[in-house]
Amino acid sequence: MNLKTIIYIILLILAFTIGYLINNLNLTGFAVKNTTPDQTLTRAFCNQKNECIDLKISCKDSKVIKIELLSDLKQFSQDWKDPRSIETLNNLCP
After folding, report:
1. Is residue 52 within 8 Å of residue 44, measured between CB atoms?
2. What angle is formed at CA 35 by the lines to CA 33 and CA 39, rounded to 5 degrees?
3. CA distance 15 to 25
4. What angle do CA 33, 34, 37 make, to 5 degrees?
5. What is the mean pLDDT of each run of 10 residues along the chain (94 residues)?
6. What is the pTM of this model?
């Protein structure tokens, strides 16, 4: 093997190593490594008349910390059935 090939192999290994480290290390540091991450999700809330609104719910440690309105009231047809389970509907912060 000549020197050019050896340098190419070393650079290739170095590039893969750097890519692996970037994808698998917590770049924000260890100070926040063991904390529960915040979670934001959207949820539609509907009444018995199939009138629904969309809300953005922010959670921390499985507790609601903020709720924002995302849509106006929307009317669905009377034969529309919500496909979500009761557990999903009742659990705001999974």
Report:
1. yes
2. 110
3. 15
4. 80
5. 74 65 50 58 84 88 88 86 77 78
6. 0.50
* One-letter amino acid of 50: N
Domain boundaries defined on the chain: 1-34, 36-94
Contacts of 35 (CB under 8 A, 6+ apart): none
| Helices and strands of the chain, counted as H and E runs | 2, 4
Task: Give, as one character, the DSSP assignment of residue 10.
Answer: H
- Looking only at the bridges linking them, the beta strands covering 39-46 and 51-60 are antiparallel
Tokens representing 19 are 């890519």
Write down the residue that tokens 């999974």 correspond to.
Answer: 94
